[in-house]
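User: Structure with cytidine-5'-triphosphate, tokens only please.
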Amino acid sequence: MRVLLTAGPTYEPLDPVRFLGNRSTGKMGYALAEAFAVGGAEVTLVSGPSQLPEPASPRIRTVRVETAAEMFAAAAAVAATADVWVFAAAVADYRPARVAPEKIKKSGETLVLELVKNVDIAATLGQSKRPEQFAVGFALETENELAHAQDKLHRKHFDLIVLNSLRDAGAGFGHDTNKVTVLDAAGQIVNFELQSKADVARGLVSLILARLTPSP
Ligand code: CTP
Ligand code: CA
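Assistant:
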């Protein structure tokens, strides 16, 4: 089985020394890569800038990227040959409209940045998804969580969407633990306990594998 995984943040350059980024560490995506590899899968881990060490497993090929555009190119290159797509990256929705060739100098009291929309990696690849391919997305919502997650699942052609809880202390960005809820297209909901990201990853991988090979 071949798995395409996106993980970590993206950095969108503003000038030679600055970028727009986010607080994603990549922990959840890297833990998923390890869990898939332990399960025998061949994983392409397309990772944005993360401080985490590159996974040592020979079953994991790590492709390092910086921007959403680079992440899209690296993911698109292997999407057709992957059986499972997992989009765990926190992709910047917008990037600076222009990258200044020189360091932007301090001048007025305010500075207005113009941003343009980035490619939606999951949604764009989703348009060419074959019926036998399986796609999993992530979502982090602060209101109407289930409705927003369902909407994303349909819009991006996901088979499952993993909703990150922000309500629980110890869950989410930077933490070693996570609390997630998994939704499918039929509206079925699976609630995971607050547990280590490694355990969440193992639970998600078994759930995905069970969906891929439904018991008779
Ligand atoms: N995603 C992606 N490419 C993007 C944005 C998001 O592949 N440019 C993926 C994420 O990796 C995640 C899913 O889409 O699996 C949902 O991301 P999210 O940021 O929650 O969705 P958005 O469509 O960007 O909506 P929002 O306005 O809530 O940020
Ligand atoms: Ca977003």
